[in-house]
Design a protein that fits this description.
131 residues; alpha+beta; globular
Length: 131
Amino acid sequence: MEKNQLEQMIAQDFLCSDGLLRVSLDDIINLRQHCDFIDGCKVSGEIGQLPTIISNTLEAIRVAHTEALLVMVIMMIICSNGKGVNIEQMNMIYHVFGQLGDIDLLWGIDNRRQEMPYDISISILTGYKYF
């Protein structure tokens, strides 16, 4: 993701969130300070496919950066008006995260008050260290 797109995603999806589980500016600063480089992506889909979307996206990100070790993930799940993540889906998300190994992980959930084209939008920031 290009730098200006990454910064716009951080501002809109992470820092403007008023969700129950939030990511703070300090979390973003910590990611930037403790990683050699960061990347990010944004994906959308249906709520029932949430764990699969997250798993596939994180694998694609990891494959794109084989020259470095993934050490930190910050993720924001944004739900469309009236949609939400249930306990079963949260447990499946934890299972996906458990497969990533020893990384720092922060995530949040926000429910936007407007309709979106998809049930959910997922913004992911990843931090890497060179080998």
